[in-house]
Amino acid sequence: MMSDLDINGFLLNASIWALPVLLAITLHEAAHGWAAAKLGDPTARLMGRVTLNPFAHVDLVGTVLIPLALLLMSAPFLFGYAKPVPVNFSRLRNPRRDMALVALAGPASNILLAILGALAFHLVPVLPDTATQWAAEMLQRLVLLNLILAVFNMLPIPPLDGGRILVSILPDWAAWKVARLERAGLFIVIGVLFLLPYFARELGYDFNVTGVLIWAPVDFLMSVIATLTGH
């Protein structure tokens, strides 16, 4: 059983992660819907998905259970997802081009939120002493989580945003083949990022795919944002 100290630490960690998770996932999905509406498809707007109300986007498994499980396991960072925003690509004015723009809107919103979070660090010293540590840790996680989501979603595998962008720019014969990966896409991602490195380590090989595909771009973006925001 968890001791009082463990419970207090868990609740504190949950409070630090809750706002970053909700903001990152909510803005990401709302950005997809907003971009689709601007480009001719009102489906998401008519379904109430172009909103910053997190309850419109919450998925029980992806937004609640997975982050909670990662917290309980003391994972180094949290990850989650929301209900996908419905987009009828046939209603977009220029379906192939606009599909890429709708997909790009999600990661772009995460990078924007990371920049805003980094700027907000300048306000931490003016907060009451009792709030400075909590606010600083929350903002650190806000920046980190949004950059992880942006980079992860730009992997060129459907149904991730990067996969949809890839489909939009490939020739028809290649785009059709890549699009067919959508149903198995998340299993491919899990295999490449987690299972393949795990089995490689068991065999004595250093196969740090996550470091190359996720952490290296995140570190680069972090340094750029730190420079732009005066840190």
Automatic annotation (TrEMBL):
Membrane topology per record: Multi-pass membrane protein
Parts of the chain that traverse the membrane: 59-79, 100-122, 181-200, 212-230
Highest taxon of source: Bacteria
Swiss-Prot/TrEMBL cofactor(s): Zn(2+)
GO MF terms, alphabetically ordered: metal ion binding; metallopeptidase activity
Residue span, Peptidase M50 domain: 131-195
Single GO cellular component term: plasma membrane
Main location: membrane
Subcellular location per the Swiss-Prot or TrEMBL entry: Cell membrane
Keywords tagged on the record: Cell membrane, Hydrolase, Membrane, Metal-binding, Metalloprotease, Protease, Transmembrane, Transmembrane helix, Zinc
Pfam (any one): Peptidase_M50
A biological process from GO: proteolysis
Keyword Transmembrane helix assigned: yes
The keyword RNA-binding is annotated on this UniProt entry: no
Family: Belongs to the peptidase M50B family.
Protein name: Zn-dependent protease (Includes SpoIVFB)
